[in-house]
Amino acid sequence: MKNFSRKDFLKTAAGAAFLMATRAFSSPVQAAEKFFREPPWKRKKPYYGYAVDTTKCIGCARCVEACKTENDVPREKFYFRTWVERYILRRSGEVNVDSPNGGLDGYLPPADPETVTKSFFVPKLCNHCEHSPCVQVCPVGATFLTEDGVVLVDKKYCIGCRYCIQACPYGSRFFNPVTHTADKCTLCYHRIKKGLKPACVEVCPTGTRMFGDLSDPKSAITKFYETENVMVLKPHMGTGAKVVYKGLDKEVR
Amino acid sequence: MDMSIIEMLREALHKVSGFIYPNELELQWSVLIVLYPYITGLVAGAFVLASLERVFDVKAIKPIYRLSLLVALAFLLIAPLPLNVHLGHPERGFEIFLTPHTSSAMAMFGFVYLWYLMVVLLMEVWLDYRKEIVEWSRTETFWPKRLFYKALTLGVDNISPRSLEIDDKIGRILTVVGLPSALLLHGYVGFIFGSIKANPWWSTPLMPVIFIFSAMASGIAGVMLVYMLMCWVRNVKIDMPCLDTIGKFLLTAIIVAFSLEMLESIQTIYEAEEHFDIISLLVEGKLFVSMILIQIIMGSLTPIFLLGLVQMVELSEKARKFFYALSGVLCLIGILAMRWNVVIGGQFFSKSFLGFTTYKMEFAGREGLLSAIVVAILPLLILAALLYLLPPWPKKEEKAASV
For chain B, how far is it from start to end, CA to CA, in angstroms? Predict the structure, then answer.
């Protein structure tokens, strides 16, 4: 074998260093290109989206009532497909959150109102994530993302292992005591496929809740997505949540 | 509708502290899911102990080689039971094998389990016992037992030295394959929890590693106690070099497992992310007894101290036996507590990080204490049956003849 001299070593090392340097210069450009991801609603039609304008919510919980009625959600205080949380922020920095019976029981006036700096309502529901942790972990594929962007559970197929409930960062899922399967918001799939709005959107008196087809550039929801400053819940989870919020406070969990 | 659960949850509503998302009141994974990683861990640990003899040629532990395999088998047969009992639709449980969802850790576990049971463990036990099985099928006087052995031979009765040599070779290869399989089996259980990013108490890449080492500790402790117990029952002398060696391995496993757990805790404390406040409240409150007292002080530090003492101070045989037995029991309790703290502890706090729910174990229900006790005792009954049918030690008369 030919001897590998010190000169050869230096040459090789210099070559390797040069190669690495070129990579360092070239890779940021490539990375930037890679980071652009076209949202699915540019490719698929229809593709449903949902938005919540928290600045409009008055906490009437008609949405919660409508959802329970429309979808036969058990009338207990621990099974909800949607619920409304009230946040009370105080001067001391204290944050009080409540959602009595999901909002159905109404909210008591806050104690020591003089210490309250602001208070607002945040409706919650399944975020119909693009990269749903619940879909990922389902061992049999009983929960899935539809072509039109809705996460559903096949209750005739779900084995009831509850892994999806553990995996959802938003607490949107519950274990249905009647069907013994995982249960959650369907965006009223049975309604929207007939061109109707989800029950919660239908009854919302203030227009807090919005629903529509994101693949339609003229729809109100697309406008809202494109022109308002919106946020999703727990963005660090990287779930690609499709329910966007306007006016989301930093204290909202 | 299952009214007993509804009643229980209505009661639990009054015990919520702070704010939880309304759907979080019900604790989804009960005590049965605590047993599932515990039992799987015992399997993996027992198998690792067996591999020490076979793969790493640790001659001293030869007396417990077969016993370890049988312990692993007994527990492995029951491992999926708590999972299946827990399902909302147990009758659909088999779908995990028929239509697995490849991105699901739980679905893949089914295959890791099957691989480990069918290819590794059963094969290895069979190969190792083949000679005896053939002999017993000829000499056994009690006819149902003879028939059983006959069936177990699978129609192969060639026990010529050459064929036994081949058995041994295949067995060795199987153990070499089996060792990573055992680690995979239990590492996977850790991954089922460690991959849930929604839950900061679970979501850590260290989870599978911690599970593997705590599994080793529990498996080694389990086999050691069974060995001591069986020696006492059979009225034979404990092989002290063997027991001393097991003690050393047990000490190593506990130290590594404990160090990893502490590393994880230190990281959590130092990084102090968004969820830190709720986690500290959890550890100081609901998990204080089961984690600080039972898992850490009683289940880890005490056995480390006792086993370390045995290493450093020259003790009488009697004292050593006592220390080993005590450490083994403490270690098993500590690791059960660790599984509890992971599984139940991880569900106590809300993913809003603003409050806690509560868990009241049922007694008689499907997921109650009684079911848990049955699931915990079943492997021991299976082990007793295995020990009766496939005694891992030479029969008395054979032993007398060989002396």
Answer: 67
Amino acid at A130: E
Q: Is B168 exposed, middle or buried (0-12, 13-18, 19+ CB in 10 A)?
A: middle
Which of B 18-57 lie inside 8 A of A, CB atoms? 19-26, 28-29
Q: How many C-beta atoms surround the C-beta of residue B205 within 10 A?
A: 11
Contact A253 B354 (CB under 8 A): yes
Is pLDDT of A2 > 80?
no
Q: How confident is the model at residue B112 (pLDDT cuts 50, 70, 90)?
A: confident
Q: Which residues of B touch A139 (CB under 8 A)?
A: 96, 100-101, 104, 106-107, 110
B360-369 CB contacts, 8 Å cutoff, 24+ apart: B360/B8, B360/B11, B360/B12, B361/B30, B361/B31, B362/B4, B362/B8, B365/B4, B365/B5, B366/B85, B366/B86, B367/B30, B367/B31, B367/B32, B367/B85, B367/B86, B368/B31, B369/B31
pLDDT of residue A25: 66
- CB proximity under 8 Å: B 70-129 to A: 83, 86-89, 92-93, 95-96, 99-101, 103-107, 110
Q: Is A210:A221 a contact under the CB 8 Å cutoff?
A: yes
Summarize pLDDT for B200-217 with one digit per residue, the tens.
Answer: 999 999 999 999 999 999
Cβ contacts of B70 within 8 Å, gap of 6 or more: B125, B383, B386, B387, B390, B392
pLDDT per residue over B296-316, tens digit each? 999 999 999 999 999 999 999
**Residues B116-125: what's their mean pLDDT?**
89
Residues of chain B contacting residue A124, judged by C-beta atoms under 8 Å apart: 21
**Which ipTM was obtained for this model?**
0.92
Report the relative pairing of strands A82-90 and B355-356 from DSSP bridges: unpaired
Q: Are strands A174-176 and A181-183 parallel, antiparallel or unpaired?
A: antiparallel
Dist CA B399 CA B90 (whole Å) = 47
Whole-model pTM? 0.91
- Cβ neighbours around A7 below 10 Å, total: 8
**Residue B366: is its pLDDT beyond 50?**
yes
Q: Are the beta carbons of A153 and A163 closer than 8 angstroms?
A: no
Question: Residue A32 corresponds to which amino acid?
Answer: A
- Considering only the beta carbons, identify the residue of B20, B28, B354 that sits closest to A165: B28
A161/B104 touch (CB, cutoff 8 Å), yes or no:
no
Distance from C-alpha of B160 to C-alpha of B277, rounded to nearest angstrom = 67
Contact flag A97-B19 (C-beta cutoff 8 Å): yes
A182 class by beta-carbon count within 10 Å (0-12 exposed, 13-18 middle, 19+ buried): buried
Task: List own/partner pairs for B286-292 with CB under 8 A and 24 or more apart.
Answer: B286/B345, B286/B348, B286/B356, B287/B341, B287/B345, B287/B348, B290/B337, B290/B340, B290/B341, B290/B345, B291/B337, B291/B341, B291/B345
Checking phi first, is residue A40 left (phi over 0); if not, alpha (psi -120 to 50) or beta?
Answer: alpha
